[in-house]
Model the fold of this input.
Amino acid sequence: MPKVTFLPLNKTVDAPKGETILEVALSNDIPLQHACGGFCSCTTCHVFVKSDPSQLSKMDEDELDRLESVGKLTENARLGCQTKVMGDVTVEIVNLDE
Ligand code: FES
Done:
């Protein structure tokens, strides 16, 4: 089963293939914000992909538009609620829910 490591918590958890980063976070008590409930309309679930971007689903138009609209579209930026895990990845949470 793929594994996701969440920084800066440095917590590694199992991730059923095809689940989103947000789903994996929530089922493992990782405090990833999700103000819109995972509907690609808030960007609070913003993460930076540290490795390996090829193990994630491709970015679709909605995600791209959302990140672009708030000036957060960078090479390794993704929305946790839109990004499916296909293999081992490490992501850094931008907005820790504390
Ligand atoms: S939870 Fe709102 S965009 Fe991902």
The first strand starts at residue 3 and ends at 7. Residues 3-93 form a domain with the Ubiquitin-like (UB roll) fold (CATH 3.10.20.30). The radius of gyration is 12 Å. Residues 34-36, 38, 40-45, 79-81 surround FE2/S2 (inorganic) cluster (CB under 6 Å).
